[in-house]
Design brief:
Elements: H1 7-35, H2 40-57, H3 63-75, H4 82-96, H5 105-120, H6 133-148, H7 153-170, H8 194-213
Helix pairs in contact: 1-2, 1-8, 2-3, 3-4, 4-5, 5-6, 6-7, 6-8, 7-8
The structure holds adenosine-5'-diphosphate (ADP) and magnesium ion.
């Protein structure tokens, strides 16, 4: 069981996220076609293609430059809200990993918290507004709680993935207050938010990717 996250583990986590998204991209676009413009799956596919390209091209060893390159590549994805928000997540995680090439569980939780803070600086959406925030906030909170309770990295990521899945599932009952889906008002109730679903899939991939290494 690894006690720290090195570049190999992070690479597996990132590729794990890409694999989950690729598998489910049609469902993501279907969800987005209810209240949005139906492009979320294809936008996420492009984001994950950029992520993998960035991993392959990343020359600099170390987590900080790796996550910087990945974040920068995702920022460049056109198609609305997703690229800037998800790109910022990884860029802000990168900044938090200054001087930490093999973060321990607490440092990893801090990096995810910094990533969330970066995203929250870009949007006023709160938990309950039916956006990706509804999955990201509980995921990061669960990560922190389990790390503080002594969980190892894989177990903490598993709990984060479970919390993200629950958070995404809970968006089904909510009315969208941000993004395109807010335009259809109460008709958005009954469909899970696509962005929250993507975040949930990505955390599942982080967990699965970290687990294969364990
Ligand atoms: P767009 O809506 O621009 O076409 P996508 O379809 O790729 O972008 O992504 C839609 C998802 O982005 C939504 O389901 C929601 O989770 C998220 N989202 C949209 N706007 C915001 C926002 N202002 N703050 C947080 N998340 C948002
Ligand atoms: Mg869309």
């Amino acid at each position: 069981m690894p006690e720290t996250i090195d570049c190999n583990t992070m690479t597996r986590m990132l590729r794990g996220a890409a694999a989950e998204i690729r598998e489910q991209h049609e469902m993501l676009s279907r969800l987005d076609s209810v209240g949005g413009d139906g492009d979320h799956g294809t936008t996420m596919l492009r984001a994950m293609a950029n992520l993998e390209k960035a991993i392959d091209a990343s020359a600099a060893p170390g987590l900080k430059p790796l996550l910087y390159d990945v974040g920068w590549a995702i920022l460049g994805v056109d198609g609305g809200a997703t690229g800037p928000l998800l790109g910022t997540l990884f860029m802000s995680m990168s900044e938090a990993l200054e001087g930490k090439d093999a973060p321990n569980p607490a440092e990893m939780a801090a990096a995810f918290e910094a990533g969330l803070a970066g995203v929250q600086a870009q949007t006023k959406a709160q938990v309950g507004d039916k956006t990706m925030i509804d999955a990201l906030v509980p995921a990061v909170a669960a990560l922190r709680t389990s790390v503080n309770g002594g969980s190892d990295i894989v177990d903490a990521l598993r709990r984060a993935a479970e919390a993200a899945e629950q958070g995404a599932a809970a968006t089904r009952e909510l009315q969208a207050r941000f993004g395109r889906a807010r335009n259809i008002k109460e008709k958005s109730i009954g469909t899970q938010d696509p962005g929250a679903t993507s975040v949930s899939l990505m955390f599942k991939g982080f967990w699965k990717g970290a687990e294969t290494h364990a």
